[in-house]
Amino acid sequence: MSVTQAQPLDPTALHRESVVFNALDCTPLSWADETYLGKLAVSGVTAINHAVSISQDYDAAAAGIVGWQRRLTETGGRVFQGFGLDDVARAQAEGSVAWFAGFEDSKPVGEDLWRLQALYQLGLRFMGLTYQNRNYAGDGCGESANGGLSRFGRALVRESNRLGVALDLSHTGERSTLETIEISERPVLVTHAGLTHFVASPRNKSDVVVRELAARGGVFGLAAKSGFLSPTGLTQRPGAEVFADNVDYLVELAGIDHVIVGTDVGDERKYSREGMARVRRLYPEIPIVGEDLDLDRIHPEGLGTPADLPRITELLVGRGYTAEDITKILGGNMHRVLAEIWGTGA
């Protein structure tokens, strides 16, 4: 944590003046209405990696990108599809939002690398290597075998590097994660996870992973999920300060240059008890909701909607981080690493 400012910072002004890049928004297309757009406007976000596909086949994932493209044309330029860092600069200048297409799983690629190039041409710029389960690339964090990357997975890492697709290891198993960090010629991301230091779930990342990620230039975003951040988060809803506690530890472990914002907070209307019961059944290793399926406890207080993004800046100011460090976390670190992955142009 940085030393306290001689003059108090104004978190509202700092947030408004910064480039704010949320490395994971998970709002489904069905909720991409005027209410959601209003939350984005209040959030002050400049750019987002949007989880268009969680774990679908090629046709469904490609259709997801096209569906969002059609919706974005109806926003009057308030939200537009981004393809590179020039679009982040455009959004900052206009006061709009640059929307980037991302997948949480490489399942749409299957075992055919040409599909990745086709998806890249549609605008895919972020891709999770795996979701929870094993796919052609390697083991997800829900697999007890922890088998690491496949031969195809190594080829997929190389092709992602060549094209400029940012690899996201948030849902990837420990061994697959470490192997990807080792072989990737470009930095990799963990956009939305927690830390096993606080919650010993395979969905969270170990200190070893965080150190290796940082050593190779990568960045780490904390998911604003109660069960990821606090060992009692599934039974007692924590306050927003628990997020700052995790940030403090992450900064000590990785360094200020390797921490980003990746809330994994989508429009809260998407949640249902039925949907969360399905998640618990399919992915019991994800500590997202308790046995009672209480939806109110999924996120810490004050961090449960896309509109709450400025609360993170308030928390960091309250912890005494400098303006320089806060602007790094909000978007500067993400900009730096994407310049290495994408290049500096559009």
SSE inventory with pairings:
Elements: H1 11-17, E1 21-25, H2 34-43, E2 47-53, H3 58-72, E3 79-81, H4 85-94, E4 97-103, H5 113-122, E5 124-128, H6 151-163, E6 166-168, H7 174-183, E7 189-193, H8 207-215, E8 219-222, H9 226-229, H10 241-254, E9 259-261, H11 273-282, H12 310-318, H13 323-342
Which descriptor suits the 3D outline? globular
Low-confidence segments, given as residue ranges, are none
State the distance separating the first and last CA atoms.
34 Å
Determine the mean pLDDT: 96
Tell me the Rg in angstroms: 18 Å
Oligomerization state: single chain
One letter per element, helices H and strands E, the order comes to: HEHEHEHEHEHEHEHEHHEHHH
What is the number of helices? 13
Q: Biggest β-sheet: count, sense, barrel? A: 6 strands, parallel
Strand coverage percent: 5-15%
Tell me the structural class.
alpha/beta
- Count of individual beta strands: 9
Name the helicity range: 40-55%
Organism: Streptomyces scopuliridis
Protein name: Dipeptidase
Compact summary:
The protein is 41% helix and 12% strand. The chain has 13 helices and nine strands.
Description of the molecule:
With 346 residues, the chain is of the alpha/beta class. The strands form 2 sheets. Strands 1, 2, 3, 4, 5 and 6 form a 6-stranded parallel sheet that branches. Strands 7-8-9 form a 3-stranded parallel sheet. Helix 4 links the parallel strand 3 and strand 4. It starts with 10 loop residues before the first helix and ends with a helix. The model has no long low-confidence stretch (mean pLDDT 96). This is Dipeptidase.
